Amino acid sequence: MSESVQQSLQMRARAYRQLLSGSESLLEGDRLYWTEKALLSLLRELSRRRLQQLAAAWPEPGPTEEAPAALRESMIEAMAEAALGGHELSQWEPVDNGYQAGCFLCGMTSWLGPDGLRYSVLEDECPGKADDEG
To answer: CA–CA separation, 100 vs 84, rounded Å?
Structure first.
């Protein structure tokens, strides 16, 4: 499989993991309209199915799957929160005492310690996304 195809599959898998995590966390809340619950349930199921299909096409584990459980969970939570705010995070890169991912749109970053401790300077809504939509 070519490197560009692998990168494309990896980006899709990351996006679907973010959608799955975000929809699951929002569905845990009880202050949703029935239409929101229906759409989030549909999104959750679609994300699960697409991740299964991608796993069949690309079974190699990515960096998120190789990380310890607490760190992996924090990475997924950070990606989901960022996606819900319109941010498009890069891959997690090792830095001093942890990992860092930056938003392609606004350049702000999110940092994770090796034990899963999170620190983010990402705004609630991506300022770069607002520029793209205008």
So the answer is: 18
User: Which parts of 1-134 fold into alpha helices (H)?
Assistant: 3-28, 34-57, 63-66, 69-84, 127-133
Q: Are 126 and 86 in contact (CB under 8 A)?
A: yes
State pLDDT tens for residues 63-95. 444 557 777 778 888 888 888 888 888 888 888
Which residues does 54 contact at the CB level (< 8 Å), separation at least 6?
Answer: 9, 12, 13, 16
- The amino acid present at 22, given as its one-letter code, is G
Biggest distance spanned by C-alpha atoms of the chain = 45
Whether this prediction's pTM lies above 0.90 is answered by: no
